[in-house]
């Protein structure tokens, strides 16, 4: 997808290179609030953390107002659930109405077709601030992520939660391209990306949104040179931003998208999906563009990446120059993660690995230290903000995760009961501890096994969580269909259907798959029947 | 709830008594489009009928535009499913945005508080045309029905699908009062109804909305004089409309709301829920007010009431005078229902009740006649509209229902297979026929049994549908809890929870009930424990 050109192909300016004072050319400078992976609705039934995601989304909208941005740019997974709860949808709609409608005049001009991507059969435009019936102050542009991707095949095609916001006029949903029904169709389609073209004064900005698809497909499309970006003829006079939501960290062959595979006319790639906050644009070897990874605004796992301070960014763009300024989020719960190896600790601290009480005492001390550290983090952040004139926020209970290597310990006490002691002092008492063991060597020769059988869940040395983590839907489906002698229904399709049913709350996924599979089967049988001249031409009853 | 006053208590003018030309006092005349029970999303996965409800809702909005109404009034069950599908919600949002936003100036002035009923914690008003950020042309006011009533208890309280439309600024949801958590609380609350007060020129209109509650509760509240209507002091100078959504037809003791129980200051009651179209306001014995029952805009059952021609109404109100003009809906599928007794027919037509072929032939002839009748209905309605200058609509496949009394017939052919012959000629081939038998006399004395045991589903003379109709959730729950020795969980609550789970798609209903029941149980046990001085005061672990 790379191309080569002359002088105008100089790389865009790196972070902070917008060599103008803040107010030098304000009428030519786009001010954009960049955020992603807000995961609204995450853990919403948790009595402590239930409102975290929505509260931080409110903070982000307030920051957009405070920093007087021209628009907000989101890179997917606005919602955690594919079908957000009523409460989540209600609060999101209300917040968008509260903070993005109003009298602030829009200073960005839409140069692309406002009808591009509009609701079929209706007259209102796809871009909300072009609708004369809505008084939009801060447009929000967003692609979908893997959590809130389009599903179903009703009269309006596949729909996602962002479509509800978009048809209400509260966001501008971009980067949706028709999802192929099966792989054969995908092979013929490719991915076509039409940009949203914006002008502010003399600066021109092109937004290329690509909603999430399976990494394998994206990888294939990029490799096959079938991602077609409809760029303006004078593309080098535009500041070109690509928005995408895919794995950046490799999770296996074709399970991620390589950083260097995009069109070299791009200036900046805003990468959603990865939750670690890496806002400063990073260089890509051999490419002009840099990658900005804003990270999530709420921790949805208690892994290390989520413990990096969470920020959104103010992106300023003037002509081909830009500056990316991180803005720390103040409503994010402090989170400290650490690990400890009991064998090492026992030696160092002088306790016995068989002494459950001593182990518990040691772990409590560790957790106490982490709570102190987390509270210090909060206080520091809060003090800094207060010094800058912000209001003080009441301290939030921290998230604490201690990973414990239990190798050599025969019996551990119950981690849920352990957490009860910390009730009221941390936000996740039920899962503050996780246990793991160093992998044991294979009995047949001492080699470390890497390809463990996927259903080896009877191994008594595994914890329940480890056992569950090893179960793969497709293996279960394979075994079930074999047991029922129903392999004709198609394993791969059935696995996908079950995943849709579970992950996307698509209650009709299995029914639809069976119907399609049976139809295909019937067709196949009929063809065969005709071929051997034994079938009834009119089909089977 | 009745009161007595003097001269000003004359009954409001009956239908057609608005003794003015259409244009005599237009600036004083409210023009209101009245509709109800649109049941959007009904049968949406049916390949033939799937889009019926949404198409007719579109027609209703178009009629509102055509008749240049000041607002639209809906009396509940806008949605068929408590949690409408994404497709349904999307299309409804789009239609409301398309037809109710625009430049048409609003001529009605809101005199009540625009903040009344607004979203907690947000600044935008509850009434959409008071929001300066929205350009509303035709406000829509609606109560909820029994299908789309509020559920759940999140941070925003119980929410329903109308809340999503309301928070988006596309409808004005009224008649929501806090639902009591249990009956004890209900006993203390009563129902408080605050009106929406509107003025157009010299006419003043008060809208009293009461969203659906269980009939038993509504009956109790009315009987106990605890439905408090907050009426203006000069209430007799207002035209007072009550909007409600309850059973009007008695379904057992306290399973409906008596027509004569409302405040006699009312001028008109608009009654949702009942699907028969009875638009002409009907007199209520001993009362000033009349009742208008618009009926549903889509047939959700194939009963006789649904075969009455479906209309919406143009309600004109000037001072205390009003006129109600029915407007037939053109997109409603023609529906003809009839019944036949095979014993009688066999005698008359001279066929044998044991001759399956002859019976089938006879029933086919009957269905053919009904199709002809339905198509004639459509053509007549269409021709009339065309004569009035409307465009011609392509004929829709009709709904046909033939109820067959099979008493004395030992074996009937399969009604689904029967319908296959009519594929492409009617909209409901799978259920065109329903069979029933005259009730057999009770063996023990010839009396007709009225109290049949509810689980008598092993009777071989019953059809599957009849068997299923007899199963009651609470009976199943009773038997299940007894079998599991779990009666402590509370039968009534568990029945309700299961109904919520099934009818309202509330996936957390059972979990919530069990939690509440267990907590109550614990409390009870603790109290008892303290009383006999054996319990630990700190509670149980």
UniProtKB/TrEMBL annotation, chains A, B:
GO function terms (MF aspect): 3'-5'-DNA exonuclease activity; manganese ion binding; single-stranded DNA endodeoxyribonuclease activity
Residue ranges of the region described as Disordered: 1-23
Active site location: 147 (proton donor)
Compositionally biased tracts (Basic and acidic residues): 1-10
GO biological process annotation, one example: double-strand break repair via nonhomologous end joining
Cofactor: Mn(2+)
Primary location class: nucleus
Alphabetically ordered keywords of this record: Chromosome, DNA damage, DNA repair, Endonuclease, Exonuclease, Hydrolase, Manganese, Meiosis, Metal-binding, Nuclease, Nucleus
Domain (Mre11 DNA-binding) ranges: 322-501
PANTHER family per the UniProt record, alphabetical: DOUBLE-STRAND BREAK REPAIR PROTEIN MRE11
UniProt protein name: Meiotic recombination
Lineage: Eukaryota, Fungi, Dikarya, Basidiomycota, Agaricomycotina
